[in-house]
Give the backbone structure.
Amino acid sequence: MNTLKKAGYLVGLPALLIFIWWFSTQGSTNFFVPKPGTLVEKFVTVWTWDRIMTDVLPSLIRLVTGIVLAIILGTGLGILVGTTRWLRSLLEPVLEFFRAIPPPVLIPVLMLLIGINDQMKIAVIVSGCIWPVLLNTIEGVRAVDGVLSDSARTFRIGGFARLRYLVLPSASPQIMAGIRQCLSIGLILMVISEMFASSEGLGFTIVQFQRSFAIPEMWSGIVVLGLIGVAMSFLFQWSERRILGWYHGLREVEHAE
């Protein structure tokens, strides 16, 4: 019964939206809003295996590479800054300055510095994705329970052991919250970087369809992006449940009480 209920929640709203879309486009001659049947037909004919390999796969490789680098750099720097008070005081104005710069603005600069290549697109993704991970990691490290920290100091638990058994478990919920935020940012920046300067990829393909007035094909590319976003969300939820199993179990016990 719970499985059927979850399935109903999962497909109920999308099915309703598709029905509203189908009903509202009956008899419509609007060139810019295709009917659901037309969009499905174009989706099947456009996104063949060859196009997936030439456009979708390179985009996914750049996206995953940029997100992984952002997570590694953001977590590492966040732990360093969060555990070092003088370094946090020194870097806080600089971090706030760079955080406020919209990552798409850096694309022309990165094109000049790195060139028009995959490294530039990955750098754009990293430049936007690193901030939620970095800032959430800093706050998570700073929020370590003072009693636990004093206990670790009393028992002379320091160095890597303190990081492994105290800091990371305490900060991991906020680190995962930062990673959740960076996933959507990374997907947006992947598309924007490919729209600016690229000869392949999802962003490039969608722009080419728009410029040639292939509107149903353009919408089919947007649907592909949405499906990638949904897949990333489910994959993250699955990973989070396993990485933070202890945390969710603790929350359930607290709510039960």
Summary: The CA atoms of residues 209 and 218 lie 5 Å apart. The chain has a mean pLDDT of 87.
